[in-house]
Amino acid sequence: MKKSLLLVICAGVALTAGQAAAIDRGQMLADNCMSCHSGGANNATIPNLTQYPSSLIVSQMKAFKDGSRPATMMSRHAKGYSDADIAALAKYIGIQGQ
Question: Dihedral of the CA atoms 20, 83, 94, 52 (nearest 10)?
């Protein structure tokens, strides 16, 4: 019984640590995005990303990355991110927008 309880506790701690690491990575990546996309300048050409759902951010970043949505600056940024990076930053930005 004690071994089972210890195993469950260890699994819970590992899962929580993994989620925290994903959020930390997402925050780090999103902070870079938010330096332009925070909405402070109220610029129509640079949208405030906190107003969009995470799923839209993911789809647009993948479109920039694969070239189906051409853009000078965003295509360069997106090509440097893995799919996991894109998902993490979109998740973090989505959390901030709620």
Answer: 170
> What residue numbers bound the domain in which 81 lies?
2-96
What is the spatial distance between Cα 86 and Cα 95, in angstroms, rounded to a whole number? 14
The pLDDT of residue 97: 57
SS3 call for 93: helix
What CATH number is attached to the domain comprising 76? 1.10.760.10
Collect the ranges in the chain with pLDDT lower than 70. 1-23, 40-43, 96-98
Q: By the 8 A CB rule, do 29 and 85 touch? A: yes
Separation between Cα atoms, residue 10 and residue 39, nearest integer Å:
42
Q: How many domains does the chain have?
A: 1
pLDDT given for residue 5 in this prediction? 46
